[in-house]
Amino acid sequence: MTTYDYDLFVIGAGSGGVRAARLTALGGKRVAIAEEFRVGGTCVIRGCVPKKFMVMASEVSHALKIAEGYGWSFDKAEFDWPTFLEAKDVEIARLSGIYAANLGKAGVDLVHGRAVLKDAHTVEIVGKDQTITAEKILIATGGRPWKPEDLPGIEHAITSEEAFHLPQLPKRILIAGGGYIAVEFAGIFAGLGVETTLIYRGPNILRGFDDDVRAHLAGEIEKRGVKVILGCQHKSLEKTGTGIVNHLENGMSLETDVVMFATGRVPHVKDLGLETAGVELNDDGAIKVDTLSKTTAENIWAIGDVTDRMNLTPVAIREAVAFHETVYRDNPQAFDYEAVASAVFSQPPVGTVGLTESEARHSCPGEVDVYLTRFRPMKYAFTGSDERVLMKLVVDAQSQRVVGVHIVGPEAPEMIQLAAIAVKAGLTKAQWDATCAVHPTMAEELVTLKDKQQPGNMSAG
């Protein structure tokens, strides 16, 4: 019988890899995990967590403006970018340390370095003259930002990863992209006082989200100072003595200090040695896996963004749990991707769960009922602000199940987490209606929507 150094070797110490490693080690197996950068992965180091700190910092300017309407006055309110960066980096280092410490407490051996597959049971730690064997291998290397390398002048642009470490706050920035990362960073920089332009080649931002959400948010972020240019993309970038000139395909030229491309992410599979281990990629360049996260190699699994199924941190963690249950507890589990809630920390933020109206009309057996409201929340109505909230329920008319909930407005991410419980449980519109409202709140609108939207009034993004 072959003897290996470890029962399980995990490549990538992000949220999914760390969870799988800890659970397996706590179950008595010999486990090692390799990380080429810092423990914590994209979410903790260069994604969700530092981004949320930046969102919260940038929201203060809006809060101060609203506060004046409530009688507060501020003689001098200033934001210092270096002070924020230092505090952010200290907190990220603390969180990364906690992840590393928890691995140690569970009995996981942490290998600092880039692991590359040499065969189906062997990895090499690049530059360290070290090879390690394992009975089973789990790949959890996540994704990386993508930008068009063939675009003239692209070397002058940054991605979201560099945005977390800009040496100084720019006066002008152009962000290319229309997904959640682009929209979130547009809100961040605008909130910090940067002249911000968002350019996207599509007809509206947030492709894949509900059309009413897309149209509503596009209007709301412009109220917050973001200039939105749709149906257009870069022709080239030109570095000058005063900045970077963005030459656009519509003939416009716009000079900014920083250009950030947030045009998508791709699975991080480059130079992993997958072919030597018999691990195949799908047509989109992600690791091909079955419903139990098993690759085309008999003893290798993959979870998280590297598989490009549903690229959310909590999903990667749940996939890790399912992997552990399947492989080490003789309890085969496949993660259920239906009705997974998500949030966009734009300004205002978005919370969504379940089907969009378009998806429901294609998948529900009969008619679809839509309940939609737009209103000025109490907080803004008092100050005279024109900002509005959108709430939308999508209902399968035949079963009366609420199959989609979409919110744009303050605290939408907090509300959608609770709404997701109801959608996941398959509750009907009558059960939502039977729930007593909490007054005065924005959330009460979710249980007091009574009027169906008429087909002639449907809006499109």
How are the SSEs placed, and which strands pair?
Blueprint: E1 6-11, H1 15-26, E2 31-35, H2 41-46, H3 48-69, H4 81-106, E3 109-112, E4 115-119, E5 122-125, E6 130-139, E7 143-145, H5 160-163, E8 172-176, H6 180-191, E9 195-200, H7 211-223, E10 226-230, E11 234-239, E12 244-248, E13 253-256, E14 258-261, E15 265-267, H8 274-277, E16 300-302, H9 313-328, E17 342-344, E18 350-354, H10 357-363, E19 368-375, H11 378-383, E20 389-396, E21 402-408, H12 412-424, H13 429-433
Parallel strand pairs: 1-2, 1-6, 2-3, 6-16, 8-9, 8-14, 9-10
Antiparallel strand pairs: 4-5, 5-6, 7-15, 11-12, 12-13, 17-18, 18-21, 19-20, 20-21
Helix pairs in contact: 1-4, 1-9, 3-4, 3-6
Short description:
With 461 residues, the chain is an alpha/beta fold.
Would you write up a description of this structure?
It is built from 13 helices and 21 strands. It is of the alpha/beta class. The termini are far apart.
Helix-residue proportion? 25-40%
Largest sheet: 7 strands, mixed
Q: Tell me the strand percentage band.
A: 15-25%
Computed CA radius of gyration, to the nearest angstrom:
24 Å
**Overall pLDDT:** 95
List keywords for this structure.
globular; alpha/beta; 461 residues; seven-stranded mixed beta sheet; 13 helices
